[in-house]
Amino acid sequence: MGLPREFVVFDTETSGMPPGGRLVEIGAIRVRGGHVVDRFQRLVFPEGPIPEQVIAIHGIDDAMVADAPSADEVLPEFLAWADRAPLLGHNVAFDARVLACEAQRYGLPLPRNRMLCSLRAARRLLKRKSHALEALVDDLGLPRGTHHRAMEDAEHTLHLYWKMLELLGAECSASAFETGRTLDGYFEEQPSLPPSRGVLREAADHGEAVELRYRGRTGSPFQALVTPRLFYRRGKSTFMEALCHHSGWYKSYRVDRVVAAQLRPEAAPAELRRPSRP
Questions:
Q1: How many structural domains are present in the chain?
Q2: Domain extent for 170
Q3: CATH number of the domain encompassing residue 204
Q4: Which of these, 16, 87, 180, 220, is most buried using a 10 Å CB contact count?
Q5: Segment 253-266, tens digit of pLDDT
Q6: Rounded distance, CA 119 to CA 139, Å?
Q7: What is the pLDDT of residues 74-95, one digit of tens each?
């Protein structure tokens, strides 16, 4: 399969590493016949506060996303805009995982768009000291600009793609960019829970509240009323993402730190809280 005549180059910014990290921005450029024909850019409310150390990287803070739609609205909009076009990204597996994890949260389907990776191609063909996007922009004399914002990094990725075609010609074939996976192939298998914690899965399946006795990082247990939504693995630990009724934010809880859990179907539904603008 040759290089596509039409494709979408895209990038995401997040509140952290997926699957726990949430989408906070997506930027994309549609290219047809070597020309930019359309753009897509959205900020996304991540249903919780953005950590300060992450804000220091991309500069997107809570106030900037306070009025933004959440991923259950933005993701379908982006996928409809992208249609069936191949999706190109720098380290595209990261961005694909971000989209797949957001889709799993809301029970959304993902299409079978081909996934293309400029990082993979650069490692195979350019073989530079560093293949980080920012380093390649400097090394190859590409147009400079802001880094670690979604639209700007999509621009850098597109310039890198065009530069590689210019430098390498026929050597820069589709196989250098192909990941061998489609977007729907990045869904993650839901982890199993111990029988004693089956109530957590039951609550997630029915949207019901659970009263937790939970052991925090200091080892001291505390009570929390939460509504579970998603379970995922990170390293050797299983995590539960749940809406905390007290804070009004989605938080992640390590399942092995749950001391006890009891269904509270009579609890009033929790309301998601948005940060206020200054």
A1: 2
A2: 6-186
A3: 2.30.30
A4: 87
A5: 999 999 999 999 99
A6: 14
A7: 999 999 999 999 999 999 999 9
